Amino acid sequence: MSMNNAPNVFLDPNANRFQVNIINEDHDNNETTQVDVGSDPPHYEETSFTDETHNRLRISYRPGKRELYDNFRQNGEKTEASLHPYDTHSKMYYLQTFGHNTMDPVPKIDYYRNTGSVSGNKLNRPSLLEIHEQLAKNIAVSTGSVERVANGESTAGDETAASKEEENKTGFVKFGWVKGVLVRCMLNIWGVMLFIRLSWIVGQAGIGLGVVVIALSVVVTTLTGISMSAICTNGVVRGGGAYYLISRSLGPEFGGSIGLIFAFANAVAVAMYVVGFAETVVELLKESDTLMVDESNDIRIIGTITVVCLLGISVAGMEWEAKAQVILLIVLLVAIANFFIGTVIPTNTEKKARGFFNYQGSIFAENFGPDFRSGEGFFSVFAIFFPAATGILAGANISGDLKDPQSAIPQGTMLAILITTIAYIAVAICAGSCVVRDATGNVNDTIVPGMSCNGSSACGLGYDFSRCASQPCDYGLMNNFQVMSMVSGFGPLITAGIFSATLSSALASLVSAPKVFQALCKDNVYKGLEFFAKGYGKNNEPIRGYVLTFVIAMAFILIAELNTIAPIISNFFLASYALINFSCFHASYAKSPGWRPAFRYYNMWVSLFGALLCCGVMFVINWWAALITYAIELFLYIYVTYKKPEVNWGSSTQALYFVNALDSALALTTVEDHVKNFRPQCLALTGAPMVRPALLDITHTFTKNNGLCICCEVYTGPRKLCVKEMNSGMEKKQAWLTKNKRKAFYAAVAADSFRDGVKSLLQASGLGRMKPNTLVIGFKKDWRSAPATQVENYVGIIHDAFDFELGVIIIRISQGFDISQVLQVQEELEKLEQERLALEATIKENDFEEGKRGICGFFKKASSLNISKHETKKESTINTIQSMHVGEFNQRLLEASTQFKKKQGKGTIDIWWLFDDGGLTILIPYILTLRKKWKNCKLRIFTGGKVNRIEEEKLVMASLLSKFRIKFADINIICDINIKPNKESWKFFEEMIEPYRLHESCKDITTAEKLKREAPWKITDAELEAFKEKSYRQVRLNELLQEHSRAANLIVLSLPVARKGAVSDYLYMAWLEILSKNLPPVLMVRGNHKNVLTFYS
């Protein structure tokens, strides 16, 4: 039923609510099909949000038909669905099943495109936040938002039109699977070997083993073709051929290495094929005695002319090159057909003397078995033939010029392999059935009655070629490379076939090399090669690549010695085949959900077998060439790995990293923790890593290559803003860590309070056994001016860490860790500098325009003066800001933030190991001394003891450390830790805590109770008295630290523990303050009182 002719379908109260209207918005088609899912559907859970009592309708407007639906208003109520988000799309099908207004887009390919897609424009679907918030707030979709969501910030119709206009304007030439893949592969596979070497191979190996040689070669190419088909059908294939397939599957390391040598091999292959053509021409000139100079120079002259002509065809465009290929294929097919026709044309006396007797059973039987001569064997014959089977990548190499590479490459390549294999086997069998192995060429060598013969098939056919056993002959399968010309119906056609085979292969290689090289350069895998990435013309032709290929080909043509380089080129191609097979295996083995090839006829183990087979064939053909190929590939692989190109292609290597990491993490869960394997795994509260770099640096120093380090940030405030800010910054901050070579992870949480966030991180961070066991935080320098809730949260975090049995490290440096103000000022100055540079560029541009326009420029002076004034104002603003922020841009703070990046000079790390916490206090500084930056620092140990047992205590500590195998420079026994501090120090401590004391003892009980309720965080007199001795100890320890460790590079000190509910937050902060005041960098460490050191083996 046509929708246009039946508007009442929308108002029918009996209409099925699961009815699907398929709307084809094609302006050329006035018919719209309505599909009824069923007149009586099963009663499933309600899927429509329509409030039927209010008759809310779902209406889609067709162009020019809006007036028709304006009448569909009931009781003056405006329809909610007056505009659907996807009604603006043209030429698309939409399923109208929801019955409510929604921003949710229907599935569409445009949402899945890459940003730079050439096959269509990328659309942006609404974010989850937009969908979520819209539903939560129940906001109707406005027309503006509908257009933005549905059309990806522009109308889809416009995008489609723009895409088509661009395509029409540029006139892309795209090939189908026949002209683009089948023709090219057949031409490349059918090479000179078919005409001048296949008969010799049959003579050496016999028909039986000859077919095995062909079959084995075809097995290699077929397995590679299958693997290539699987990779090609696992996503859109762009230009670059083998390089593209390997790089997108195995990553830039493998792809970059093979891409460069593959492009080079194709460039040199041009020279090989052209020299083959030139040699054939020179042979003809030699026969007619018309050489120009001599054989070598004639090859160079003809080769140069040929390459120039081929380059002209290539530069003219792919369309001309494709036409030339078709013509060459026709010539080649005629030449092959000419051979088969010649085998059935009755032979003559001359041809019989040369060993051709038409089809004879006796010749077939004699030639079926092998007869290896001149040191040849099965593998040497196979090595000679195998290059004839290569060429299967000819179609894939121009993947960027194919209409549908996903279907064209598998279809064309596999069919080309089948056709060429049949041709090779048929030619081998026919040649072996018609021509004897040896013939003299002398028509008088016939059998005379009464004459004895050697019993060969030639004897039975009346010819005696027995003297070939004792002296060399010039004819027969073993001796004459021109057997096909002799057998054929018209000899010159075989010569034309040889010309066609060489020129077509040269042309294919001349096109392939620049295309592959251009794709490699576009990816910027090798930084210095961007120059060759530029394309020209309607098909983005790599003209620069053509010129480079021409230069390389010319160089090797002029050398004219290709016998040495030829095996290396064959191995380069085989290395590509091996990696294509391995890519298929690797992608399957990685079990990535993204590996979903449409081509199903592959098996990962068969692909692995194909890869190993290719590697084996490389050594069979030429072992030293194989070693050279592997050496070059390994060098390029290491180079690309070292350079680390910034690309992300979702390779199977990445997928395997994940699988291996997951397997290792799961395997680790079955391994019980052991004290010998303990390593600090730190959760560092750095906030954004770039804001507290010094805290990250010191933590990273004892976790790098040794333990886990997680930089954590807690977002507090309105949840919506926090989550948005957190999500937007995750990748940026992890990237900062990677860029700055910090082996750490970044984690963030959004919470109602800082303490709640840290509590979540303490409980949930890590994976399996890879969980944090130590909390690292900076000392809260502003605790005296901060709100009481912040101090409570800070101390509460330490309590929480101990509750979850984590060790705690509090780090204090004199300048503090937070450099956010410095970063902010730097950012402002950078912005202003950019604005200044932009203004300068504008002024220069205006001055240039004035110079161009002459007197007309006079009238522009005013605007230039305004700009100059504006610039002056900007400069003065910069100077003002610089002067304003002189105090904030604290050079000492910047220096302090980088102090742990610098190499520490000769000095000491003083360890005040006052309390046994399991050994973490001694382990952390020991790990530091293993690092290059700290290796010049010696460990000095300070511990408490009795005056009358100093030497014994030293011996005990030295014995303990030696058992732990920890080297130390000195041990100091401190005997006066528990004496009272001097009056000045104690007075300073009392003045410090005075603002936070309650002084309840000076007040009556009622007032005191009231004060406790109003300020429960204050230090009571009772608490201060109860912990007076402990307070004395902290103050006294600072005096001792000032006395003994003021010159140390780093102090590592046992962290005092405050009992929960007994010691107030401010008293504890006062202890930490007085303990670490006016000292070098201090690490206050407390382990979780479980052993982290052992002296057992």
Automatic annotation (TrEMBL):
Annotated GO MF terms: sodium:potassium:chloride symporter activity
Presence of keyword Repeat: no
Topology within the bilayer: Multi-pass membrane protein
Entries under InterPro entries matching the protein: AA-permease/SLC12A_dom (IPR004841), AA_permease_N (IPR013612), SLC12_C (IPR018491), Slc12a1 (IPR002445), SLC12A1/SLC12A2 (IPR002443), SLC12A_fam (IPR004842)
GO biological process: cell volume homeostasis; chloride ion homeostasis; potassium ion homeostasis; potassium ion import across plasma membrane; sodium ion homeostasis
TM ranges: 181-201, 207-237, 258-279, 299-319, 326-345, 378-400, 412-436, 543-562, 568-589, 601-625
Domain SLC12A transporter C-terminal: from-to ranges: 692-1097
Protein name: Solute carrier family 12 member 1
UniProt key word Repeat: no
GO cellular component: apical plasma membrane
Assigned keywords, A-Z: Cell membrane, Chloride, Coiled coil, Glycoprotein, Ion transport, Membrane, Phosphoprotein, Potassium, Potassium transport, Sodium, Sodium transport, Symport, Transmembrane, Transmembrane helix, Transport
Chain coiled-coil ranges: 822-849
Renumbered residue ranges of the record's region Disordered: 28-52
Compartments in which it is found: Cell membrane
